[in-house]
Write a structure and sequence with these properties.
By secondary structure, this protein is an all-alpha fold. The protein contains four helices and no strands. The longest helix is centred in the N-terminal third of the chain and has 22 residues.
């Protein structure tokens, strides 16, 4: 019975290792950041020349950046998307 428990633990650890490896692929980091950003449902700025609207949009997006812990580079990339 102990052998079966060890085998299950080994299988679970192997599965976990595969998930971690898949989620930490260097080529997917930007894609994953974009997915996380979009899950916050950022508003679109479509008001043309409207300083008040632009300020409100920037403040809303900055809240998302803060929640995500974005670097300045990430803020530029995601903000221009």
């Amino acid at each position: 019975m102990a052998g079966r428990g060890n085998a299950q633990i080994a299988d679970a650890l192997a599965t976990l290792a595969n998930i971690v490896a898949r989620d930490h692929q260097p080529g997917r980091e930007d894609e994953m950041k974009l997915e996380r950003f979009m899950k916050h449902k950022p508003t679109l700025f479509t008001e043309g020349y409207a300083p008040e609207g632009a300020i409100k949009w920037v403040e809303e997006v900055e809240i998302i950046f803060e929640a995500m812990g974005c670097t300045e580079e990430n803020k530029i990339t995601l903000g221009t998307y």
